[in-house]
Write a structure and sequence with these properties.
Elements lengths: L2 E9 L8 H14 L3 E12 L9 E11 L1 H12 L4 E9 L2 H9 L1
Antiparallel strand pairs: 1-3, 1-4, 2-3
Length: 106
């Protein structure tokens, strides 16, 4: 059974700000290759971190909303962990479209 997910990825674009578009397209293809159906891609642009917890003090935020089987999340997490362009990643399971629209109507 497929569920809706949101993946917030923070990209390391330090020194390669122009390459963010190509990186996002590559990530989109990688997510689709695992069998996910992408609903929406939100490019949230470059943002400063509230505190520096590593080698970077800013990152390029991208939010993917997609529908996929639960095991796809673990595959993506493992694959993106090895990707040097991804600084951080976070996944959240969302409500189904039907439940979200019904809740909004109430």
């Amino acid at each position: 059974m497929k569920h809706r997910y949101e993946a917030l990825l923070i990209l390391d674009v330090k020194g390669k700000e122009d390459g963010a578009k190509e990186t996002i397209e590559r990530l989109e293809k990688a997510i689709a290759k695992e069998g996910a159906v992408i609903e929406q891609i939100q490019r949230l642009d470059k943002r400063q971190f509230s505190y520096a917890a590593g080698k970077l003090d800013y990152g390029y935020y991208v939010n993917f909303v997609f529908e996929a089987a639960p095991e796809v999340i673990e595959k993506l997490r493992a694959k993106f962990e090895l990707d040097e362009d991804i600084y951080r990643q976070h996944y959240l399971r969302l409500k189904t479209r039907k439940a979200a629209t019904a809740e909004a109507a109430a």
